Every structure is written in C-alpha cells, then in structure tokens.
Amino acid sequence: MQIEIIKFIQSFSNVGLDYIFEGITILGEEIFYTMAFCFIYWCINKRASYLLMISYIISTALNLTLKNVFHATRPINVEGIRSLRTNTAPGYSFPSGHTQGATTFWMGIIYIYDKVSIKVGSVIIIILIGFSRLYLGVHWPIDVIGGIVFGAISFFIGLKLLLYVEKKKTYTHLYILAIITIIGFAIYPEKNFAIAAGLITGFAIGYPIENKYINFTEKTTLIRQIIKFIIGILGLIFIKVFLKSILPIHLVSDMIRYFMIAFWILVMYPYLFSKIQKS
C-alpha cells in the first residue's frame, strides 16, 4: 500500500515539481535551521530561540535513536519508485528526520507567535516538507506520520524542560540531557549523533553562561541587526571550516566542531557584540 501511495504521488511528477519539492525539502535541513536559530537568537528574541534550539536538538537525538532502534529501510531502489536528492537521506528511514525536525521547529513558531497567519503558514510548511519526502521517494508515508508525532513530542519535551529550568533556575536537567546524548553517541557512533551530542553539550554549557554573565540585548537598529547577523554567520562559517581543517577526521572531531558552533552562537558572539554595543 505504501509503495502505491508513493507511486501515485510521483505519477504527477515533472521537472518543475522536482525543483519545487527539492527546494521545499531544504527547509528541513541544517542550513535553514542554523540561519533561523541565529537570526532569531541574535536579532529578535533570544528566549524564543532557546525554546526552538533545545526542542530541535532533542528532536534530532530522539530521531536518531528511533532510526537505530527500528532499522527501517528506505524506498530508495525499490522498483517503480524514483528517488531524488538521496544525499539528504542517509541511514535508516523511520521516522522522517526532515518531517520531525520541521514539526518540532514550526510547532515552536506556532507556540511563540500568536498570529493566525503564522500558525496556518507553519502547519502548511510542516505538511509540505513531509509531502516532499514522499514526492522525492526517500521516505515511506509511515515515516512522515511518525516524524509528525515524534516531532510534536519533542517540542513538548523541550518546552517543559525550558520552563522547568527557567522556573527553578537550575541547569542540572540540561547537563543530564547532554550526558544522555553523549551516551547515545557512544552506543550509536555516527556523524549525526556526534553533531547532536556536540550541540546539546554546547547548549547545556552555553545557556547558563549567557544567562548569568552576559545577558545580551538582541534589540538594536535595523542596519546594526543586518551587520550583526552577517558578521555572526561569517564567524560561524570560519569556525566550522577552520576546525574541520585542523582536527583529525573522526566522529569526536565532529562533536567538538558542533560544540564550538553552539558555543559561538550562544556565548562567544553575543559577548563580542554586547561589548561593542556598550563601547
């Protein structure tokens, strides 16, 4: 049945739709989330970005764990199904990482912004990203459904965790989450788990440092916001490229790189531009 659903969806395919859905699926990938987290954190609302980041990291770790538990194969190379953009589809199939990440992120946007247009638009984006994975032939329908379900669960876990941390003014639960994710990486030594472990560790350490010692203000003039964002992204790219060039090719190196990326976003760059603003 799932094969027939994908075949039906792909029966309407053409070159134009290929480009459209390849573009839509990018909205569920690292480059989009990195830009979104940085822009919201540095320029709009850092508390909102805290929620989006921690929920997304939890979603990523949960998704990788579930993939390694279920070991579901993808529809790639199944007769009658064509698969596009397969470079975005490594590893196992269930649940869909793109759909799960999108659900977690855009549920956060729905929670934060009380506008009907934003809520409706967010739901549409979740549906389109999930549909794009079927159109591109890299996931089964059950993967997309699972991605939506576990994406929603991840968001609520992230929300409850952040509210608890803010209320109790304790960071123990963040440290425990980082330790659990590192253990998950040790059990399933793969690149995406190394990335997740690096990000959550960077968040667990960076979040309290920023709150206690920096507490930067994200608001400033429009031109300064633009300059701030561009310089911050350039710095992030430099850190990612520089560390990749000097560290050995190893999964632990990936964890270190993404730890530094999270630390740059949360602590190092906010410290720099807070000093500049005060000067």
Write up what this structure looks like.
The protein has 279 residues and is an all-alpha fold. The protein folds into two domains: 168 residues, no CATH class; 82 residues, no CATH class. The chain is built from eleven helices and no strands. The longest helix is centred in the middle third of the chain and has 28 residues. The radius of gyration is 19 Å and the shape is globular. The model has no long low-confidence stretch (mean pLDDT 92).
List the SSEs and their pairings:
Blueprint: H1 2-10, H2 15-26, H3 30-44, H4 46-70, H5 97-112, H6 116-135, H7 141-168, H8 172-187, H9 191-214, H10 222-246, H11 251-278
Q: Look at the helices and sheets and give the structural class.
A: mainly alpha
Percent range for helical residues?
over 70%
Question: What's the domain count?
Answer: 2
Question: Number of DSSP helices?
Answer: 11
- The SSE order reads HHHHHHHHHHH
Query: Per the principal axes of the C-alpha atoms, what is the gross shape?
Result: globular
How would you briefly describe this protein structure?
With 279 residues, the protein is mainly α.
